[in-house]
Write a structure and sequence with these properties.
Helix content is 48%, strand content 13%. The protein is of the alpha/beta class. Strand 2, helix 4 and strand 3 (110-113) form a beta-alpha-beta unit. Helix 3 (63-74) packs parallel to helix 4 and helix 7 (173-186) packs parallel to helix 12. The longest helix has 19 residues, at 33-51.
């Protein structure tokens, strides 16, 4: 592992009792994308040279994902991409993730798409259909396993809104709009807003400036994975700019408001369980208020309608890998 998002990563590994064989630990505070990419590539090269794996598997759309695929390509090692085929069609939204996943697809041999929509994106880009597998998302495997192990709970008197926001393209006025919306929602008095604040300094500064000591808003440290799944299932509404939470919220039967202009996960939008708000203050407030005040609308959008998987994605990926490499 490269230790991208170190604090978050360590507790997720602990939750699933995973011990990495290599901890490259190359991330540094304040580094640029170019600096992190160069360190990842340099650190991965000797590992791949030493291990000579039959395949390198990368997941998602981070800088680590792209650099892992590129490092494997440089050594002529086949790449398998999990969460393949997600697209917004805009190289700047989200940035740099959209280009990371597009370039990873160009480098990959096997493509594990969460949905048929993602698989069709790959086919349109010229990927051999024989190398595309619709599996569901392994993140849903994880969240369902944790959910099923948690004890029952009773809802509190006030409706809980859980917030996550950290997208690079929202830095500046976008974050200010999000924070102003949260202040207005908190002023209703009938909600409790819980915001685990991402460690990125740009996020920390904006959130502290706008939301520190605001009544009905709890600014907390990022939670461990199991605790965060528990928080999501207790939430009434999820406000997020995270890709994964768009999927997880649908799996948990929670309406999701996506504080971005575009999403690479339109399946939940089409199903009606998620809706785009952008970072506009008035839109976020209006869409959240609708869910808080219109019981029928809430019931319609809170149903569990999950196009992202049934908890068996990992097993499908394993079977595809065994089948492909038993033939070589």
């Amino acid at each position: 592992m490269t230790a991208q998002h170190r604090a978050i990563l360590d507790q997720v590994l602990a939750a699933f009792s995973i011990a990495p064989d290599y901890d490259l630990n190359i991330m540094q505070a304040g580094q640029t994308l170019a600096e992190s990419a160069s360190r990842i590539l340099a650190a991965l090269e000797p590992v791949l040279d030493r291990e000579r794996p039959d395949c390198v598997m990368v997941q998602g759309d981070t800088t680590t994902t792209f650099c892992g695929a590129l490092a494997a390509f440089y050594q002529s090692i086949p790449v398998a991409h999990v969460e393949a085929g997600m697209r917004t069609g805009d190289a700047r939204q989200p940035f740099p993730e959209e280009m990371n996943r597009v370039l990873t697809s160009r480098l990959a041999t096997l493509h594990f798409a969460a949905t048929e929509w993602a698989a069709e994106n790959l086919r349109r880009e010229g990927v051999d259909p024989a190398n595309i597998f619709v599996t569901g998302n392994t993140g849903i495997d994880a969240v369902l396993a944790v959910r099923d192990a948690l004890p029952a709970f009773e809802a509190g008197a006030r409706k809980t809104i859980v917030v996550t926001a950290h997208r690079r393209e929202s830095f500046g006025e976008g974050f200010s709009g999000i924070c102003r919306a949260l202040r207005r929602l908190a002023e209703r008095g009938d909600v409790e807003i819980i915001y685990p604040v991402h460690p990125n300094p740009n996020v920390q500064a904006a959130v502290s400036r706008h939301l520190r000591d605001v009544a009905n808003i709890q600014l907390i440290e990022p939670l461990e994975y199991v605790a965060f799944v528990d928080l999501m299932r207790r939430a009434h509404i999820l406000l997020t700019d995270s890709g994964g939470i768009q999927e997880e919220g649908s799996s948990l039967g929670k309406p999701v408001l996506v504080m971005r202009e575009k999403t690479e996960r339109p399946e939940a939008i089409a199903a009606g369980t998620a809706r785009l708000t952008g970072t506009d203050e008035a839109t976020i407030v209006a869409e959240t208020a609708r869910l808080l005040d219109d019981a029928e609308e809430y019931r319609r959008r809170a149903r569990i309608d999950n196009p992202y998987g049934d908890g068996r994605a990992s097993a499908r990926i394993r079977e595809a890998l065994l089948t492909r490499f038993s033939q070589t």
